[in-house]
Amino acid sequence: xxxxxxxxxxxxxxxxxxxxxxxxxxxxxxxxxxxxxxxxxxxxxxxxxxxxxxxxxxxxxxxxxxxxxxxxxxxxxxxxxxxxxxxxxxxxxxxxxxxxxxxxxxxxxxxxxxxxxxxxxxxxxxxxxxxxxxxxxxxxxxxxxxxxxxxxxxxxxxxxxxxxxxxxxxxxxxxxxxxxxxxxxxxxxxxxxxxxxxxxxxxxxxxxxxxxxxxxxxxxxxxxxxxxxxxxxxxxxxxxxxxxxxxxxxxxxxxxxxxxxxxxxxxxxxxxxxxxxxxxxxxxxxxxxxxxxxxxxxxxxxxxxxxxxxxxxxxxxxxxxxxxxxxxxxxxxxxxxxxxxxxxxxxxxxxxxxxxxxxxxxxxxxxxxxxxxxxxxxxxxxxxxxxxxxxxx
Length: 393
Ligand SMILES: NC(=O)c1ccc[n+]([C@@H]2O[C@H](COP(=O)([O-])OP(=O)(O)OC[C@H]3O[C@@H](n4cnc5c(N)ncnc54)[C@H](O)[C@@H]3O)[C@@H](O)[C@H]2O)c1
Hints:
Strand order of the largest sheet: 12-11-7-10-9-8-15
Number of domains: 3
Order of helices and strands: EHEHEHEHEHEHEHHEEEEEEEHHHEEEE
Mean pLDDT: 96
Radius of gyration: 23 Å
Low-confidence stretches: none
Distance between the termini: 65 Å
Structural class: alpha/beta
Bound molecules: nicotinamide-adenine-dinucleotide
Number of helices: 11
CATH architecture of the largest domain: 2-Layer Sandwich
CATH class of the largest domain: Alpha Beta
Helix content: 25-40%
Number of strands: 18
Shape: globular
CATH topology of the largest domain: Dihydrodipicolinate Reductase, domain 2
């Protein structure tokens, strides 16, 4: 695949590291940045033959087949519209829009142009996530009751993130978009998210947007997705998922304290890992950050899907659903009520009833709980199927 990258900042460099580092057959052929000096520097660093300070010129370059958007959130819509109208496949970083209305416009633009709209949700491609999702899909943990995802760090690295108009919000739009999509994958993308309850507050930073939030997303089958986000967490970047099912549990820690610990007095390189707050003392480096954050698997899926003419695992439609859930979360944080998820375009299961299958102890009784006591004896808590009386055996 011959690629254009829009943006030369933090994420564009992560993407380029992932694309250039591993002898991929895909190449970056054009880069856009607002200033010539940044565009040229990026082009020099990654061996990109063409650079431009015009989005239109960059995406219209005749060699470009697909565009990767690594721009600030307020620029996603215009960048997607330019790419789609140039007839190029377009892969956009998260969050897709600042809100669902923007995301829907982007979805409609790629659908109309007949190009792929890939949603670059890297945390749904980490090696641990992919293995967990396979286990869930194979039924290893039964029916998912609750899927929780947490992303917290001390706050982002560029001015525009802190400006609500440009970013669309605070920690919730920035980090919650990952968490929502992670939970949604585990619960099942075909299951409609129905309503959201959310607490959000600005506790530490002098900004209009929230720097902490927790939310519950209720799905039509009864499952709950939970997100926990913060821009005030101290000690690095905490990325953890927990999935609870009727037959099992998954706990995945993607980044901080994953088994690699190092002590240094602070000599040598300053960089330890994304959002690490210190380079001295006991540190928690990450072996291959680009890979462990999901970028390698993500681009492989995107380009393979484009080659085969199929949809990647994460599409603009997913980005739109995530934005719609977050819109409801922002509203709920204001109204302090459960707020419905408004979906103008729903492509999943029309109606998913909650199914409760009770396990039986025998013909007469349901089994509520079986317990092995310290004495080794077994105790059964049972419920009479007709009278409802709760007893033990
Ligand atoms: N894990 C992830 O997937 C991940 C991680 C970090 C950032 N992101 C996303 O990547 C995007 C960029 O974030 P970043 O961390 O690279 O930020 P950054 O500030 O490092 O880079 C932003 C880029 O956008 C450009 N830009 C900003 N305002 C612009 C404007 N008005 N016109 C034209 N160009 C403009 C900047 O020049 C820069 O090239 C955001 O949407 C962010 O949410 C994703």
